[in-house]
Design the sequence.
């Protein structure tokens, strides 16, 4: 079993596949930020209820987000850093298979 596949699923639940776990991991920040649709939220929460390894990962991400919010709240990055980040973001090119 992979690190993200449960050794045993909840009673009556189907075992999760690596692909399902990878999908959850890719969407975890949208769930934490409240930016996913109600349908996606329901699907992700169901997965978390049935997949202990993903639930542990979600908990870590949730704690990380809380730590960032605590340590970085109110502070703004220096203007020079913000400008360099803007330039890097503009220069970044994403190539996707179509």
Sequence:
């Amino acid at each position: 079993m992979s690190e993200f596949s449960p050794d045993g699923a909840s009673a009556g639940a189907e075992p999760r596949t690596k692909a399902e776990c990878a999908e959850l991991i890719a969407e975890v920040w949208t769930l934490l930020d409240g930016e996913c649709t109600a349908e996606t939220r329901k699907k992700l929460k169901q997965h978390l209820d049935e997949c202990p390894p993903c639930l542990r990962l979600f908990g870590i991400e949730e704690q990380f987000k809380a730590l960032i919010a605590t340590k970085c709240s109110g502070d703004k990055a220096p203007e020079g850093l913000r400008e360099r980040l803007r330039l890097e973001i503009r220069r970044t090119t994403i190539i996707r298979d179509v």
